[in-house]
Amino acid sequence: MTTREGRLRSHDYPFLMQRWRRLARRGGLQMSKFAESGGQEIYCLESPRREGGGLYLSAGIHGDEPASVVALLEWAESEIPFLQNFPVLIFPCLNPWGLIHNCRLDCGGRDLNRQFHTARLPQIAAHKRLLAGRQFEVAATLHEDYDARGVYLYEIARARPFLGEQLLGAASQCLPRESRASIEGRRCRDGLIRRRITPETMKQHPEAFVLHFHHSLRTITLETPSEFSIHERVEAHLAALRAIQSFLVFQNKSGHPASR
Ligand SMILES: [Zn+2]
Questions:
Q1: Which ranges constitute the DSSP H helices of the chain?
Q2: pLDDT at 224 over 70
């Protein structure tokens, strides 16, 4: 099967998880089921190296955003040595029921990305337990947007150097940058929305809020425009993931761990 054929099975959850299991075996990553929802098992993967800061990646919290899920898998399949040598925690698909049904919401009609202010949902409670005590240099949550005209991202950072501009530069090799100057009332400059947030900014917290408040120095929410082809959208996510990887490798090699 070619890469392009694989991308056309972007809602085939068992097929995607089979590929993750193969990858985990090859790379010595630990793949574990941490929750269940809508009759589907939800997994996380952890690289064998645990010490130090690291990288957090997640995709598919909205089931109608399949390029995020495919890109994360393709990136991981091509970067096994990095995954073996750098502490990485991966959530390959946070809403499998939604992915299978091509639906933003979960099986209970909930937007999972507005549930992180509580631990009422067992899936969110289990997710938070996995994060307890963990610190990441970079956390990226991968999304898509039906209203988008181009690629854009939110960056919430507690430390410099920022990395949003670098990621957009890479992703915009594959897709135009978002042209809107304002997205949901927030100023968007050439696709970049830099946010300062407090727990009061939104009543119902997205995943990125928990990451920013408790676990990550730089939190990125990347969005690709759903109206473009799956291939262009996957390529844009891949380019951004590679840019994050280069950023981390450079920071750590130059003796300036991004976590300092
Ligand atoms: Zn989304």
A1: 3-7, 13-27, 66-78, 80-85, 96-100, 122-131, 164-171, 207-210, 230-253
A2: yes
How many angstroms does the Cα of residue 145 sit away from the middle of ligand 1? Answer: 6
Q: What is the CA radius of gyration of the chain?
A: 17
Please give the backbone phi and psi of residue 246, each rounded to the nearest 5 degrees, phi first.
-60, -40
Q: What is the mean pLDDT of residues 144-172?
A: 95
**d(C-alpha 107, C-alpha 86), whole Å:** 34
pTM above 0.85?
yes
The rounded Å distance from CA 140 to ligand 1 centre is 12
Q: Strand, coil or helix: what is 182?
A: strand
Residue range 3-253 forms a domain whose CATH class is alpha beta
Domains of the chain by residue range: 3-253
What is the rounded average pLDDT for all residues in the chain?
95
Measured in Å, residue 7 CA sits from the centre of ligand 1 at 19
C-beta separation of 106 from 112 below 8 A: yes
In the reported structure, the alpha carbon of residue 66 is separated from the centroid of ligand 1 by a whole-number distance in angstroms of 10
Is the separation of the CB atoms in 116 and 214 below 8 Å? no
